């Protein structure tokens, strides 16, 4: 396989990954609705699988104050998600990924005897995402711009050479960075204070709800820069009449 073929294969793989991402599913919508955002975060099933383990931890921990129970029961819930997906012949990989994450944090919490360690993996993931966003801006390859460029290759192929597009997509990358930074600003002090219950509440509030708001803002900005083709064609026809 030639170098150009390898480059094309990599680009195709990246484009497919971008289309399957939440940003890809949102930007594919000509009009953004509640169901469209819900679909972007995995539908009702994905929402339940994202929220329920943290909610179960909060309830069990508030009732028992037991690190072992409040860590292991959410892991059991995550395993049930895998079984339900397998039984209903749905893709199990999302549930497996979630269960692995819950399992790792449960193991850390149980072995250290610290309930707040149920959230340490999420904190470090937010650190990683924040660093990736900021570094991409510093090197003038804002990550959200790269993703949008892959998604809208026909319209956004030269986004880095167009000042308005570059500014808007850089702003959008800062907004995503801000989401991760906000989570860390709230969660790190709670972690250091060993306030596991407050951490669970913070994760519930700053998780899916904040994520949905940022996806909505993403759609607004992307559509302001790259309107749907049908709208663009209609506008062009109106101008020529």
Report, as a whole number of angstroms, the end-to-end distance.
51 Å
Mean pLDDT equals: 84
Q: Into which percentage range does the β-strand content fall?
A: under 5%
Number of domains: 1
Unreliable residue stretches: 230-241
Quick gist of this model?
With 241 residues, this protein is an all-alpha fold. The protein has 12 helices and no strands. The chain has helices at 3-20, 22-27, 34-40, 43-64, 67-87, 93-112, 120-138, 143-151, 163-192, 196-206, 208-225, 229-240.
Explain this structure.
With 241 residues, the protein is mostly helical. It has helices at residues 3-20, 22-27, 34-40, 43-64, 67-87, 93-112, 120-138, 143-151, 163-192, 196-206, 208-225, 229-240. It has one domain. The protein has twelve helices and no strands. Helix 9 (163-192) runs antiparallel to helix 11.
Summarize the topology.
Layout: H1 3-20, H2 22-27, H3 34-40, H4 43-64, H5 67-87, H6 93-112, H7 120-138, H8 143-151, H9 163-192, H10 196-206, H11 208-225, H12 229-240
Name its key features:
241 residues; mainly alpha; 80% helix
């Amino acid at each position: 396989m030639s170098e150009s073929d390898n480059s094309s294969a990599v680009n195709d793989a990246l484009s497919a990954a971008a289309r399957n991402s939440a940003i890809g599913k949102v930007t594919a919508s000509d009009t953004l609705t509640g169901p469209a955002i819900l679909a972007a975060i995995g539908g009702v099933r994905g929402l339940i699988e994202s929220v329920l383990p943290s909610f179960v931890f909060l309830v069990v921990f508030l009732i028992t104050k037991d690190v072992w129970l409040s860590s292991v029961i959410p892991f059991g819930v995550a395993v049930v998600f895998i079984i339900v997906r397998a039984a209903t012949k749905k893709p199990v990989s999302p549930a497996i990924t979630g269960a692995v994450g819950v399992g790792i944090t449960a193991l850390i919490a149980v072995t250290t005897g610290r309930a707040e360690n149920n959230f340490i993996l999420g904190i470090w993931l937010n650190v990683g995402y924040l660093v990736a966003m900021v570094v991409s801006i510093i090197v003038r390859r804002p990550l959200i711009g790269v993703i949008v460029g892959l998604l809208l290759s026909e319209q956004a192929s030269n986004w880095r050479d167009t000042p308005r597009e570059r500014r808007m997509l850089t702003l959008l990358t800062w907004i995503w960075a801000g989401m991760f930074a906000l989570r860390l600003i709230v969660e790190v002090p709670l972690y250091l204070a060993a306030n596991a219950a407050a951490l669970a509440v913070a994760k519930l509030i700053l998780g899916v709800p904040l994520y949905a708001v940022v996806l909505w803002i993403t759609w607004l900005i992307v559509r302001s820069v790259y309107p749907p083709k049908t709208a663009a064609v209609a506008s062009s026809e109106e101008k020529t009449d």
